[in-house]
From TrEMBL:
This is 4-hydroxy-3-methylbut-2-enyl diphosphate reductase. The chain holds residues 1 to 294 of 668 of the full protein. The active site is at E127 (proton donor). Belongs to the IspH family. It comes from Anaerovorax odorimutans. Catalyzes the conversion of 1-hydroxy-2-methyl-2-(E)-butenyl 4-diphosphate (HMBPP) into a mixture of isopentenyl diphosphate (IPP) and dimethylallyl diphosphate (DMAPP). Acts in the terminal step of the DOXP/MEP pathway for isoprenoid precursor biosynthesis. The gene is ispH. Dimethylallyl diphosphate binds at H42, H75, H125, S218, S219, N220, S262. [4Fe-4S] cluster binds at C13, C97, C190. (2E)-4-hydroxy-3-methylbut-2-enyl diphosphate binds at H42, H75, H125, T162, S218, S219, N220, S262. Isopentenyl diphosphate binds at H42, H75, H125, S218, S219, N220, S262.
Length: 294
């Protein structure tokens, strides 16, 4: 008998759930055009459903019709975005996750006090670009202890991208201490991320085979995959049901399942159901947004 162990913390986080709720309500109530700047979350299953509800994805608020509605996604945006939106009379549905909005406030205030802002994260990630936009795009951005050791500035104020691994954040702080920097720090790694990473690790330690569910574009899911691989070399990334490695699954008795904060519940249930039934048949077409949330 196979044992399927689902990580205690897996699937949609509070911020993503809130963003999808707000987007759905806005799409239902909006009379004119409605846009989101970039995909609302990094999950194709979800964004395709939202597009069917009329939400068009654009790259910049300059592309939105004057006076139309634009959803600000959970990753947040920089100050410049809000300035353009005001100039173009856009109606904003602000779905910035409150934990990200807090980082915007922190870096803005620290910058006003003359601190050098250091963001630990991926310089290309939209959340990091948005945070940087609240300190005049002046932030130093590092993603490793090696990069931190090369920083020349002093009097730093350090924050983290909400989804980075806590071990990376700790290593960066250690490197700053070693190089004698003066710095203050607010650990802004989100609990939802830390909880998912911890329960993914615990599940991977027990499993013969691990499935990490989510979109290949989702940075938090990719990090879960890396963590899982460390403790269970037999780890597989499952973006949709077709990726389920059923032959491998058949050989193992303890199968762990972890899912990123942007992974819809329907995919998690579908994967577990398919393994339980021991078949790859997929008749569970998703028909409504509720299917994504259930
Ligand atoms: Fe917000 Fe944390 Fe999710 S920052 S978007 S609740 S991962």
């Amino acid at each position: 008998m196979k044992e399927i162990i689902r990580a205690d913390h897996s699937g949609f986080c509070f911020g993503v759930r809130q963003a999808i709720d707000k987007a759905e309500k806005a799409a239902d109530q909006c009379q004119g055009s409605i846009y989101s700047c970039g995909s609302l979350i990094h999950n194709k299953l979800v964004t395709e459903k939202l597009e069917k509800k009329g939400i068009q994805v654009i790259k910049s608020p300059d592309e939105a019709e004057i006076g139309s509605t634009v959803i600000v996604r959970s990753h947040g945006e920089g100050k410049q975005f809000y300035d353009i939106a005001e100039h173009r009379s856009l109606k904003l549905v602000d779905a910035t996750c409150p934990f990200v909005a807090r980082i915007h406030d922190l870096v803005r205030t620290a910058r006003e006090k003359g601190k050098n802002i250091l963001i630990v994260g991926d310089k290309n990630h939209p959340e990091v670009c948005g945070i940087n936009g609240w300190c005049g795009d002046s932030a130093i951005i590092v993603n490793s202890a090696e990069e931190a050791a090369r920083i020349e500035e002093d009097d730093l104020f350090v924050v983290a991208q909400t989804t980075i691994r806590s071990s990376v954040f700790d290593e960066v702080l250690e490197a700053l201490e070693k190089s004698g920097k003066t710095f203050s720090v607010t650990n802004t790694i989100c609990n939802a991320t830390a909880n998912r990473q911890k329960s993914c690790m615990e599940t991977a330690k027990k499993a013969e085979l691990m499935l990490v569910l989510g979109d290949t574009q989702s940075s938090n899911t990719k990090k879960l995959y890396d963590i899982s691989k460390k403790y269970c070399t037999n780890t597989h990334f499952v973006e949709n049901i077709k990726d389920l490695p059923l032959k491998e699954v058949e050989k193992c008795n303890r199968i762990g399942v972890a899912a990123g904060a942007s992974t819809p519940e329907c995919l998690i249930k579908e994967v577990i159901a398919n393994m339980s039934e021991n078949t790859l048949e997929n008749n569970n077409e998703m028909n409504s947004m509720d299917d994504l949330m259930d």
